[in-house]
Amino acid sequence: QVQLVESGGGLVQAGNSLRLSCAAYGRTFDNAVMGWFRQAPGKEREFVAGVTWSRGNVKYGDSVKGRFAIFRDGAKNTVYLQMNNLQHEDTGIYYCAAARGNIRTASTMYDYWGQGTQVTVSS
User: N or C: which terminus of the chain carries fewer CB neighbours within 10 A?
Assistant: First the structure.
C-alpha cells in the first residue's frame, strides 16, 4: 500500500509562485512514476506533470510547459511541483498520484492518489 500526502497549496495572486509537495509512504517500486493532476470545478481531471522515480524523466501538460517544474528528492521520498507565473486558469485541486511504468497522462493509469490540495490564483 502506498500513501501520498500533498501540501503547499494556497491562495496567490497571478504572476506569483507556489511549490507543492507530495510525500510518499509505504511500499515503493523501482519503476515508480509520480504524477501531478489538477481538477477545476466542472472540469475533468487534467494531467499536469509526471516524473519517473529512478531516472527522473519528466513530462508536462501543454498548458504548464515552461512555467511548472516537477522534481523528486529520493532521500525524502517526496515529489515537488514548482509552479511559476501562476494564472487564474491554474486554479483547482491538485492531486499527487503514483503508478508503475512509463509516465501516463490518463488519470485512470494511476493506482494511488493523495487527498488533494487547493490552489487558488486570483487575477
Answer: N
